[in-house]
């Protein structure tokens, strides 16, 4: 099936946005920030970064992971936005092989994910009937 090759279950992936939101200290104060987080394959938050821009949040996450020497090979990045081609391109360049977005994925993002080998999950949120569709 579509979900068989995901490194963690669709149910666990769908639970990660709530874990990410719970850790967003600045969002709790402002109500208006995007976040990017790296989770391990057990669903534990490793690194979180927030910014008003969805791309900036991912840039900050990549920088924090590089600074800390975090191995992204066994991680899953979650973004609180749609999966655009920029998100997938940045993830691929950083070596992040698994990306989930709480919203949809653009056709170009799916195409880039296919070309770069990034496993992409869209609508990764509780209650989504299409949580974690995958393209590889």
Notes on the protein architecture:
This protein starts with 9 loop residues before the first helix and ends with a strand. The chain contains five helices and six strands. It has a six-stranded mixed sheet, with helices on both faces. It has helices at residues 10-23, 25-30, 54-68, 85-94, 107-116; strands at 34-40, 45-51, 75-79, 98-101, 119-122, 133-135. It has 136 residues and is an alpha/beta fold. It is globular and about 40 Å long. Helix 5 links the parallel strand 4 and strand 5.
Q: What are the salient characteristics of this protein?
A:
single chain; 22% strand; 6 strands; alpha/beta; 136 residues
Secondary structure elements and pairings:
Elements: H1 10-23, H2 25-30, E1 34-40, E2 45-51, H3 54-68, E3 75-79, H4 85-94, E4 98-101, H5 107-116, E5 119-122, E6 133-135
Parallel strand pairs: 3-4, 4-5
Antiparallel strand pairs: 1-2, 1-3, 5-6
Helix pairs in contact: 3-4, 4-5
Mean pLDDT: 83
Uncertain spans: 129-136
State the shape. Answer: globular
Query: H/E element string?
Result: HHEEHEHEHEE
Helical percentage: 40-55%
The number of distinct β-strands equals 6
* Strand composition percent: 15-25%
Widest β-sheet, arrangement of strands: 2-1-3-4-5-6
Largest sheet: 6 strands, mixed
Specify the number of helices: 5
Alpha-carbon Rg, integer: 13 Å
Q: Which structural class should the secondary elements be placed in? A: alpha/beta
For the record, give the distance between the C-alpha atoms at the N and C termini, rounded to a whole number: 12 Å
């Amino acid at each position: 099936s579509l979900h068989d090759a995901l490194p963690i279950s669709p149910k666990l992936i769908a639970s990660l946005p709530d874990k990410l939101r719970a850790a967003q200290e600045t969002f709790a104060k402002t109500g208006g920030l995007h976040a990017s987080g790296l989770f391990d394959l057990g669903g534990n938050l490793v690194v979180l970064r927030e910014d008003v821009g969805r791309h900036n949040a991912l840039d900050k996450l990549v920088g924090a992971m590089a600074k800390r020497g975090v191995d992204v090979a066994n991680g899953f990045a979650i973004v609180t936005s749609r999966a655009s081609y920029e998100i997938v391109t940045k993830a691929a360049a950083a070596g992040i092989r698994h990306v989930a977005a709480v919203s949809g994925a653009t056709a170009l993002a799916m195409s880039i994910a296919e070309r770069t080998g990034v496993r992409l999950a869209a609508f990764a949120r509780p209650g989504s009937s299409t949580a974690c569709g995958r393209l590889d």
